[in-house]
Design brief:
The longest helix has 13 residues. The two termini are 20 Å apart. By secondary structure, this protein is of the alpha+beta class. The chain is built from 6 helices and 8 strands, in the order E-E-H-E-E-H-H-E-E-H-E-E-H-H. The protein has a 6-stranded antiparallel β-sheet, sandwiched between helices. It has a single domain, classed as Chemotaxis protein chec.
Length: 150
């Protein structure tokens, strides 16, 4: 399980160290590869990193949806077509492709946020803005959680 937040620096070549705790989780799963892709939250731009087995499960859920539904088609174009497989190098770094770096405005300080089964990768300043936005939404979040029985 991926939990916590960690800051690392993106180098000039687009490489960033994957937090050691996240590397441990991946190696415990038996496969250290990640799939990086764009997020689907319209209010914030970040990347989502899925372990291979989570990505495969997600792909299967998408495959089970109506394939001619315009929203499914758009989801595939945004979230799947832009995805990239990333393996860690010997130093524990991943290479974030230029298109994905541009999408999430990644440069300099990068923040990794563990969300349980996957990881979000944020520009540090954008992460702090998103946290403030989330804090402003706490009453609505609490209402939604109550409706869901949590």
């Amino acid at each position: 399980m991926f939990i916590g937040t960690y800051e690392h620096s993106l180098d000039d070549k687009g490489r960033v160290s994957l937090p050691a705790r996240f590397r441990e989780v991946l190696s415990g799963n038996g496969d250290a590869r990640l799939i990086l892709t764009t997020n689907v939250d319209p209010g914030a731009r970040c990347l989502v990193a899925y372990p291979i087995h989570e990505w495969q499960a997600f792909q299967q859920r998408i495959a089970d949806l109506p394939q001619f539904d315009e929203h499914v088609i758009r989801l595939k174009r945004l979230h799947i077509a832009g995805a990239a497989e990333c393996a860690t190098d010997r130093q524990g770094r991943i290479l974030v492709p230029p298109m994905l770096r541009d999408y999430a405005n990644l440069s300099g300080s990068v923040l990794f946020a563990g969300l349980g089964s996957n990881i979000e990768i944020w520009d540090r300043e954008m992460w702090h803005a998103e946290r403030e936005r989330a804090k402003q939404s706490l009453p609505a979040i609490n209402d939604a959680l109550a409706r869901l029985g949590l």
